[in-house]
Design a protein that fits this description.
Blueprint lengths: L1 H14 L17 E10 L7 E4 L4 E4 L4 E4 L13 E6 L4 E4 L2 E8 L2 E6 L7 E5 L2
Antiparallel strand pairs: 1-2, 1-3, 1-9, 3-4, 4-5, 5-6, 6-7, 7-8, 8-9
């Protein structure tokens, strides 16, 4: 009887474990849709930066490999013009108006990095 209880306990314990149960984690294939900026990486140039709340920027990824941004992709509020470019899920790259960036998923966030002097990063959340 003791062995049966031990085996049953082990079975229940193992069956309740999964590698990733977090429904908020975004799959790589789920980039298509609209994403809203929620934070930017503020770094003084020494690598000690942290993400700080931010708003005002939207990215929209289509299933044809096109990305639209409501303001300049790399230079944000400096240029208010809507920009359009492309993205590639195999290289996780984004190219908008000769500004190249990369993206990755971190839990529920889409994290985008692109050219700048200090380490740069932006965090987005899905809005649709």
């Amino acid at each position: 009887m003791k062995k049966i209880l031990i085996l049953l306990s082990v079975f229940v314990s193992l069956s309740s474990c999964t590698d990733c149960d977090d429904d908020a984690v975004v799959a790589e294939s789920e980039i298509v849709g609209s994403w809203e900026l929620v934070a930017i990486l503020a770094d003084p140039g020494d690598g000690s930066g942290t993400y700080q709340p931010a708003t005002g920027k939207m990215l929209q990824f289509t299933d044809q490999g096109v990305v639209n941004c409501n303001i300049s992709f790399c230079f944000g509020q400096i240029t208010q013009a809507t920009t359009t470019g492309t993205y590639d899920i195999t290289t996780t790259s984004i190219d908008v108006d000769n500004c190249t960036g990369t993206y990755s998923f971190n839990g529920p966030f889409l994290e985008v990095s692109h050219f700048c002097i200090e380490p740069c990063g932006e965090r987005y959340v899905r809005v649709n």
